[in-house]
Amino acid sequence: MRLPSRQPVLLTGCVALIGALDYVTGPDIGFSLFYLLPIAWCAWHGRRPVAIALAVVAALLWFTADSAWHGVNLVSLWNGFTRLGIYFAIAFLTARLRHDEMRLRALNARLQELLEQEQQLSRTDPLTNLPNRRLFVDELRRASARIHRTGKPIAVAYVDLDRFKAFNDRFGHAAGDAVLRQVARVLAMQVRGNDVAARLGGAQFGLLLDQCPEDSARATMTRLLDRVVAGLGEVGKGDVSVSIGVACFDGPQLAPEAMIDHADAAMYCAKGQGTNRLYITRLTGTRAAIT
What we know:
alpha+beta; Alpha-Beta Plaits; 2 domains; six-stranded mixed sheet; rod-shaped
């Protein structure tokens, strides 16, 4: 923080006032320490040259006041130079302390920024920029807890690309990456407020639909299936299809991995019905219903 332009003038006046009091009171009341206040304040606020100038003025004023009462002698000269050295030292040390404090703040801010970036990278899939499985599991844990508190249902979808490995081997990783990014874009478009789309690994994706009853989940996932199939037709050369399993939960709190397992099992049911299929189950308490 820099001083306003009029502050150095006010500080100089403050030093002059202390010098006048020193001159008037003489040796009975010493004001030498009070000179340090404006010098240190000025140095702390980023005006080291002004603080040094104030140190010189303060030393001269003190020497003038002391000489007026005791005359000029070796002792007064020594004391004058001693105080000048003290005032200089306070100005430099205060400015250095402020500089180090500001630098430490900047380093802490940079460290916090890097830490946040590292945390973001550790929870994001670098290819699709979707959340990864770690973040998805954390969101499922929070969503499961909300079921217990609010009783509002959620739906968890497991999306698997069929014949993706063969496609990747045939057309190369660049083509395979294009397919994954296309599916990620479609999933991201379906994300609302507290919804989460994530890449779980390989050619598997997850989708959490928060506060979503079964009929809404069916409509959303049917629309999603159509859009994924259309997207795969653009980049998958007709060789990649999709299977989607959805598990709807409105019962007691479940572990995140258990929720994923239910959606995964539904996905395998969809896979067993053919290509580009959707299969939905509903779990109430410990019971599952096929719908």
